[in-house]
Design goal:
Blueprint lengths: L4 H10 L8 E3 L2 E3 L13 H6 L21 E3 L5 E3 L32
Antiparallel strand pairs: 1-2, 3-4
Length: about 110
């Protein structure tokens, strides 16, 4: 088989996704095939740097949402509320005369004078 420039370029244009430009090697044009390998899985060192989620941890890992656990789950899967774990809000009797406010105004001075 003879290698001509038109023959090589026609093959190059038809297989453009899997080849690179032809180069001269010992007076013959050769098409080099290069494919980039992309894995959908990460390496072990890369997975250690990811945040721990319930999908990546073992069976007993429970991440939660940052809320308090106000009870427990029984072996039947029912939730029983523990009154000692419930959040208890203590509100002053008269809110109109109470000096402290729940929020700070935006125009509050930064210095503590």
């Amino acid at each position: 088989m003879t290698f001509t420039t038109s023959n090589i370029m026609s093959k190059f244009l038809t297989n453009m996704h899997s080849t690179t430009l032809p180069f001269l090697n010992n007076n013959f044009y050769v098409l080099s095939t290069q494919r980039r390998f992309m894995s959908k899985f990460l390496s072990k060192s890369a997975t250690k740097r990811l945040p721990l989620t319930s999908k990546r941890a073992r069976k007993g890992y429970y991440k939660g949402t940052g809320a308090r656990k106000e009870g427990k789950i029984t072996s039947l899967g029912r939730f029983i509320v523990d009154p000692t774990k419930r959040m208890n809000l203590i509100v002053p009797e008269n809110l109109e005369t109470f000096k402290l406010k729940p929020y700070i105004a935006r125009k509050f001075p930064n210095s503590q004078e």
